[in-house]
Amino acid sequence: MINVNYLTLPQTPGPDFKTTDAFNGRKVILFGLPGAFTPTCSLKQLPTFDAMHSQFKEKGIEDIYCVSVNDGFVMNAWFRKQEVKNVKYIADGSGQLTKQLGMLVSKDNIGFGKRSWRYAAVINNGIVEQMFAEEGMCDNHKDDPYDISSPENVYEKL
Question: Fewer CB within 10 Å, N side or C side of the chain?
Answer without folding.
Answer: N
